[in-house]
Amino acid sequence: MTYPVIRELPPEQRPRERMLKEGAASLSDIDLLAIMLRTGTAKASAMELAAAVLSRFQDLRRLSQATIEELSEIKGIGPVKAVQIKAALELGRRLASLPAEERPVIRCPEDVCSLLMEDLRNLDREYFLALLLNTKNQVLARETISIGTLNASMVHPRELFKVAIRRSAAAVILVHNHPSGDPTPSREDITLTKRLIEAGEIIGIDVLDHIVIGDNRFTSLKSKGLI
Fold first, then answer.
1. Whether 190 and 162 share a structural domain
2. Cβ atoms of residues 99 and 106 within 8 Å
């Protein structure tokens, strides 16, 4: 089978451009290996070299076991490209060998406070954070959405849901601190929360709660029936 020279492909069909647009999971093994190799030779495109490598070792498992010397025997690969391949495969091996990450699970407002109280209770200005959750209410990430003044933080739905979408979050919990130490929600806090809930409903990301952190105290807007 003859593979095209990548630069001769329409831009939307090139592996690198497809990866940027559609993500790595949409690419074949040959596409990914061609991106790794970057260039071909005078007689073979990067796609053809990638196909030759995979044909020689049959599958990724056998490829991962190949030595640099064995890779270098393939016409057009050579020591430099062989080292690139082995380095990428070694990174994948190290990732696969990492222990499973234990993610905190949020079951109640107290779980949120145990994660964030000490970080937020003594700050001298308002920090607005979001806990991004998966479908099991495990914390995927903690994101700072905005940093405000002594008594206010400006938050736009776009900034919140941009990070939530990027991390493929199923739900978010909003958290911000009151530097005064009093966690009583303001009218603005309640209005903002309702606005973010409405935006989340449109996008398909649930806003589960909004926690206001004070000095070793907190208020859950959901528990108080305010949202």
1. yes
2. no
At residue 122, what is the residue type?
N
Integer CA distances (angstroms), 118 to 4, 83, 105, 109, 121, in order:
57, 46, 18, 15, 6
Give every residue of the chain whose pLDDT is below 70, as ranges. 1-12, 100, 149-153
DSSP 18-69: HHHHH-GGGS-HHHHHHHHH----SSS-HHHHHHHHHHHH-SHHHHHH--HH
**CA distance linking residue 184 with residue 187, whole number of Å:** 10
Longest dimension (CA), the chain: 72
For residue range 93-116, list pLDDT tens digits in order.
Answer: 888 887 767 789 999 999 999 999
Q: Is residue 56 located within the same domain as residue 131?
A: no
Helix axes 157-166, 187-203, angle to 10 degrees: 40
User: Could you report the per-residue pLDDT of 191-218, keeping only the tens digit for each?
Assistant: 999 999 999 999 999 999 999 999 999 9
Mean pLDDT over the full length of the chain? 88
Residue 135 domain-assigned (yes or no): yes
Same domain, 82 and 160: no
Q: Is 165 a domain residue?
A: yes
Secondary structure (3-state) at 208 = strand
